[in-house]
Amino acid sequence: MIKEKTNSTLTFADFKIEVLKDYTTAIISRECSLLGRKEVLTGKAKFGIFGDGKEVPQLAMAKAFKNGDFRSGYYRDQTFMMAIGQLTVQQFFAGLYGHTDIEQEPMSAGRQMGGHFATHSLNEDGSWKDLTKQKNSSSDISPTAGQMPRLLGIAQASKIYRQVKGMPNAANFSNEGNEVAWGTIGNASTSEGLFFETINAAGVLQVPMVMSVWDDEYGISVHARHQTTKENISEILKGYQKEEDTNGFEILRVKGWDYAELVATYEKAAIIARENHVPVLIHVNELTQPQGHSSSGSHERYKDANRLAWERDFDCIRQMKLWMIAINIASPEEIDAIDAAAKKEVLEGKKAAWNAFLQPIIEEQKELVTLLEKIATTSKKQEEVLKYASELSAIKSPIKKEILVTARKVLRLIITENQREELSQWITRYTAKTQKNFSSNLYSETDLNVFSVDKVLPTYADDAAEDTDGRMILRDNFDAIFTKYPETLIFGEDAGTIGDVNQGLEGMQEKYGELRVADVGIREATILGQGIGMALRGLRPIAEIQYLDYLLYAIQIMSDDLATLRYRTVGKQKAPLIIRTRGHRLEGIWHSGSPMGMIINAIRGIHVLVPRNMTQAAGFYNSLLECDEPALVIECLNGYRLKEKMPTNYGEFKTPIGVVETMKEGSDITLVSYGSTLRLVQQAAKELLEVGIDCEVIDLQSLLPFDIKHDLVKSIMKTNRLLVIDEDVPGGASAYILQQIIEQQNGYNYLDSKPQTLTAKEHRPAYGTDGDYFSKPSTEDIYEKVYEMMNEVNPSKYPTMF
């Protein structure tokens, strides 16, 4: 067992002050939960999920939480956030109402439902704050156990900062690795695979994580006997208990209503994790949930009378009161006075939050009513317009939707009248002003976004040697990256000792050490989580997923956490993680998939880059390391042994992001593709030229962002025909590409024939060379498809083949 230190003993007077302060925070939090539920039931708020019943253990956690520490928790930690000074009563209710002002609702400006917490890691310009000078919380997400993978990376960052020297600005992110990552989760959510994957990984990595399980025996209405073997998560995790000369966890158990024991337990856990970098699991049991799971239902429906009576008796706040009285911390009368003051404070905070939320909307309501009344004075539809104005004016608690709906309906009425222009302009201004409150910051809006990086071409020696394997270009570029950016590190399955399965990292672990070039277990979700957490703390991780098909294990984390991070914090947190994988054509169902349509539609908020060769891929890595945005780079599986010219400016050349490249100019038809299939397109174009068909071949290079210069439509203006070739399934990425060209770029204006796609079959590719040929587009398929399209133009010159 690990030996732990204890803090110096407080005087009783100091102890009393501290306990009373804690109790006050707990009772304020409880009153917020009680009043918050009422606000939902009266309709002022849409939904509520609260931390009642968990107040006392969260106080204990807050006492052990230091500046520089990070929380990765779930949606019941309001008491903790109040205790560390990061959540006020007014902010709590602002979150409940969905206030879109980040100053009023600093957690997410109304983008997430209440109970989802975050602190601000970034300054207004997107630069990092000094995270060691504040208490930090990564932004919560709703999917159960979704906070676990990120927690692993947050904890691992401390290990990296402690053991890897020479990183720039490290002092702004870590005090020599002494920070603890604090995780919280409900007992039922420990049934999720992400929980077990993270627990196992943390035990292997030995990172400073303290994982709290709030155990109230239920998951909504489902009892623990249906959730957990032996109904006890710490019991079944005993095999993870750290023993002498082994890795693993320290496992602690404590009753959630025992304030004194909770404080001691959390102090002990903090010392173990902070000083020794050993993870700790704290199983906090005998907790209650006084109002049930959420405002959507009542727990009386699924708890019997005995359980409800026990919950009343062992409510953590009631037990804390009894303990305070028993040891003369406070008399019943003093406690009653604190309770009364808390009720008043919460009520006043609620009123202030509601007024701050409502007043700006009322001003907008008045503005539109005044405009409508003015319009009515000269309108042929005076009566109808005044009716709309009156109905809007009568709404005592309007929302923005009601204002805009009224304006748009009136515009329909007066569409043929002169006044329509003024109302139309008002609607345009109002929509533009309001929409950004709901749609900004999906991608970086700082000077460090991907569009801030200028293209730098690879340079080549005049007496360049023969072309080399593509993998060598990747390897030498990674070598330059690791030298240029000491804060970069890469990790994945087989990434370390053997230098990845295609030797793109050959020799890198030996040169830069096992922490910067690391092997990890087969656990894709937590590989992503490691990257997210470390990127949240100022490192520049590259998380490697061995094959594109395996990305499906991690797609939920990418979609729900990484892709939404900047959006759900309104630009107050960022995680510029680079995800490296390889895919497209190879052999077999699970090694040659190209599920690009699914990926690009699941991870908006992450850039998706699809280089055709390794020089392009290396240039993307160089570009991304000058940006502050996350991205997925998909290398071509069949390109590592293909020959490419060797550059001389490794680490410096940069592939532009969001810009297409014309590989061959032509006049008859535009062929659009990316990745491995592009080589087949180029071959087909060469063969088609022999029969007089001149194809323009364009490499997309990136799918997100997509052709920001609109070069594709410029090509169609010249050729008047379009074929998209894609190895995804029909209607996959090709549908997205067509939508971008035809709808967004107005390409339909310049087409003389139907735009078409050539894709893989609906099934996954079968094994072997024949499986590839009969499952995905071939050179012959491309040739014949283009020939068929040209048959429409000139049947006599291009007679029907089949």
UniProtKB/TrEMBL annotation:
**Record flagged with keyword Nucleus:** no
Enzyme class, spelled out: oxidoreductase
Q: Tell me the cofactors it needs.
A: thiamine diphosphate
Keywords tagged on the record? Oxidoreductase, Thiamine pyrophosphate
The EC number on file is 1.2.4.4
The record's annotation in Pfam families points to: E1_dh, Transket_pyr, Transketolase_C
Cross-referenced InterPro entries: DH_E1, THDP-binding, Transketo_C/PFOR_II, Transketolase-like_Pyr-bd, Transketolase_C
Residue span, Transketolase-like pyrimidine-binding domain: 468-642
Q: What does this protein do?
A: E1 component of the 2-oxoglutarate dehydrogenase (OGDH) complex which catalyzes the decarboxylation of 2-oxoglutarate, the first step in the conversion of 2-oxoglutarate to succinyl-CoA and CO(2).
Protein name as it appears in the record: 3-methyl-2-oxobutanoate dehydrogenase (2-methylpropanoyl-transferring)
Q: Name its species.
A: Flavobacterium flabelliforme
